[in-house]
Amino acid sequence: MKNNLNLLDRWQAADFLHHQLPHRRTARQWYGYLCRNRTDPQYGYRITLHLKNGNAHYTEQALLEFVRVMTTRSTTKAA
């Protein structure tokens, strides 16, 4: 069975989050967030990661779910 997961390395994931949530952080700040998220999940949300050759990788689906949670929280706090 072929694995169809599109894995992004940590820098790619940080850039992805920056493009999805540009008002929150820079790509470099998102990178730092991803480094800490594994052991200290800010916002009470731990993004699922996959270890590949000892390095953290993320799926676009996991990142999009995080974006959805973050934007939902933003709109509910504003209301």
Verbal overview:
52% of the residues lie in helices and 14% in strands. It is α+β, with helices and mostly antiparallel strands. The protein has one domain. The protein has a three-stranded antiparallel β-sheet with strand order 1-3-2. The longest helix has 19 residues, at 60-78. The N and C termini lie far apart (46 Å).
Describe the structure using short key phrases.
79 residues; 3-stranded antiparallel beta sheet; 3 strands; 52% helix; globular
Short description:
This protein is an alpha+beta fold and 79 residues long.
Contiguous helical run count:
3
Q: What is the chain-wise order of helices and strands? A: EHHEEH
Largest sheet, in brief, is: 3 strands, antiparallel
User: What oligomerization state is this entry in?
Assistant: single chain
Which helices and strands, and how do they pair?
Layout: E1 7-9, H1 10-20, H2 27-37, E2 50-52, E3 55-59, H3 60-78
Antiparallel strand pairs: 1-3, 2-3
